[in-house]
Amino acid sequence: MGFIDASRAERPIARGRVSRDAARRRRTRVGELEAQLEQLRRVLRLAVVFGGDKTSPGAVINQFPNARSWKSYEQVAEDLAAALRRLGFEVVDLVPDDMRLGERLRAADVNLAWLNTGGVQGLGSMCHAPAMLEMMGIPYIGHGPLAVGGLDFKHLFKRDLLLLGLPTAPFFVWHPAFGSLQPRLDPRFREVFGDFRGPFVVKPVSGRASQNVMVVDDAADLEDVASGIFETTENHVLIETFLSGREYCVAVCGPTVARDGRLERLPQPFVFSAIERVLDADERIFTSMDQRPITTDRVRLLHPTGDRASFEQLSALATRVYRELGIETLVRLDIRADSAGRLHVLEANPKPDLKSPEGDKTSLVCAGLAAEGMSYDDLVLGLLADRLDILFSQRRGTVHHLTRLLEQRH
Ligand SMILES: Nc1ncnc2c1ncn2[C@@H]1O[C@H](COP(=O)(O)OP(=O)(O)OP(=O)(O)O)[C@@H](O)[C@H]1O
Ligand SMILES: [Mg+2]
């Protein structure tokens, strides 16, 4: 195998003029990666992991509450598996994430897993599957356990944004163990919000699909609302200023991408699907996709020239977040403007919805693929190839079994 990860090593240089040498090294590496994928297609045993149901017999020892609203994501796992099969991978299983995950992966002799799970139950559930796979020794497509926690716990992510000087709404984290929530008396609350009187947004630190996200107009109601969210999640609660402007999303992933089934290596992370989420006039919070599926009329693709200012700001934010937080695979940034039109990052979704577009139903990440000349299958191939590239170049110790597969004569 032995190859040098030329493009990843050259990242800082790629900010400036890309030398001809760098471009040639990228082409060479892409050719090598394509040849490896070609061989792996026939022999790799893949599993797409979705969220296991804690109520199914044998799934867990004791049932715990779900700090993060639970969903199986099985349908999207099916879409991903179908794409992998169309791409020529002959063995692709669907496996639920629960305490039998290891037995199931061993029984199916899985070599590589695709994580499409938010976990089964408990605290930090997004971290459980990658942590188990690290422990069991199975490489995966997805963020590492600590990285995913730092993204899925919105307050941790927002602290990173503050440290990096990136814009995010002022925020306050509350837990009943800190004592009662007294906006008027708490000096820390006043330090964060100053004279701001509302409206506020109150939400779980780890959540999905606008579940339990509330607008609170009067600070006097914050304690009741935050206590209600704590009752549901048994986890910290985030309070931030309500941003009343337009809402945007942008996706960003690693530099190895596929177009028309062919791999390409970009000199920087791939930023795509910059969209505006279209809100109804009276819709203060984007309605949960559990209640109203995301349809094409709810998504306006930004135009690089027609929407130049917002397009460029979103691209710059996405690139900085990806690089400076050392993110290694796809995230979707949710961003909203304040009343003056200034953009603020709401969150980075470490497992954005990857539903395959069908009719007028789409996903926020896939809405801009056609404009990039890419299909859903190209997205899936690119994410797989980018991950393999990282594993083979930076985590060689985790892929000895894949190297052996490549060395076998077929
Ligand atoms: N500070 C804020 N100001 C204005 N609106 C907000 C704010 N925070 C959240 N929202 C609204 O609530 C929605 C859900 O919030 P957020 O993205 O933080 O949580 P989520 O439930 O994890 O979202 P999803 O999983 O749908 O991306 C946002 O899409 C936005 O419409
Ligand atoms: Mg969101």
Task: Describe the structure in your own words.
With 410 residues, the protein is an alpha+beta fold. The protein has 3 domains: 6-142 and 381-407, 3-Layer(aba) Sandwich (Rossmann fold); 171-241, Dna Ligase, domain 1; 247-374, ATP-grasp fold, B domain (D-amino Acid Aminotransferase, Chain A, domain 1, 2-Layer Sandwich). It contains 13 helices and 15 strands. It has helices at 6-9, 11-14, 20-43, 74-86, 101-107, 125-136, 145-152, 154-164, 187-193, 222-233, 308-324, 376-394, 400-407, and strands at 45-51, 91-97, 112-116, 140-141, 171-174, 200-204, 214-216, 237-241, 247-253, 256-259, 262-265, 270-277, 299-301, 331-337, 343-349. The protein has a 5-stranded antiparallel sheet with strand order 13-12-9-14-15. It has a 4-stranded parallel sheet with strand order 2-1-3-4, sandwiched between helices. It has a 4-stranded antiparallel sheet with strand order 5-8-6-7, sandwiched between helices. The longest helix has 24 residues, at 20-43. The radius of gyration is 22 Å and the shape is globular. The chain starts with 5 loop residues before the first helix and ends with a helix. Mean pLDDT is 92; it is low at 1-7 and 9-14. Residues 334, 346-347 line the site of magnesium ion (MG). The site of magnesium ion has 3 residues, from strand 15.
Briefly say what this structure is:
The chain has 13 helices and 15 strands. It is α+β, with helices and mostly antiparallel strands and 410 residues long. The protein has three domains: 164 residues, Rossmann fold (3-Layer(aba) Sandwich), CATH 3.40.50.20; 71 residues, ATP-grasp fold, A domain (Dna Ligase, domain 1); 128 residues, ATP-grasp fold, B domain (D-amino Acid Aminotransferase, Chain A, domain 1).
